Input
Amino acid sequence: DVKVTQSSRYLVKRTGEKVFLECVQDMDHENMFWYRQDPGLGLRLIYFSYDVKMKEKGDIPEGYSVSREKKERFSLILESTSTNQTSMYLCASTPATSGRIGQYFGPGTRLTVT
Amino acid sequence: QKEVEQNSGPLSVPEGAIASLNCTYSDRGSQSFFWYRQYSGKSPELIMSIYSNGDKEDGRFTAQLNKASQYVSLLIRDSQPSDSATYLCAVVEYNQGGKLIFGQGTELSVKP
Output
């Protein structure tokens, strides 16, 4: 079974703090994705990566950056958090030939910024 | 703007009935389609995939695809209270290496 893990299930941070969310997958998948999910807005893609050291902006990259130094690990960085970044953050991965496999999600991190 | 549309619900069905969830998509180039189940407070779980026109069955679940009408559906037979969740339709964005476009999800409630 594919396993995608995320570093924290719940986080509470103060406005202006730096947050580092880590995602690790154990299936040698090339493609990795970061989403946020908010009530009424659905899943929104923040950043994705097709390979080590590669990154592409998604639909809402502002206020976020990412790092992919190793194939299995994709990190989302919030340099200076704001209250509007309170959300559920979800990581997903899929193989490069994934047109027919779909994405596998980690358990999510619920971030609250106060 | 490529879109995936779902009725938000909630869709309420009695236990044992068939639940029918529908999805339309705008990108005619899309080739692969997925259904995810998401329980409250949890992450989405992939439950069905379909690529060819027609039906695909897996246990109590049947996915249906009609590319000409740009329509995907999920039928859940013998619905159980444990099927109560939000169901997300997702479509692979053509030529974008596995990038998915998600619908907003349909909330299903199965009443005992």
Q: What stands out?
A: The radius of gyration of chain B is 13 Å. Residues 38 and 47 of chain B are 10 Å apart (CA to CA).
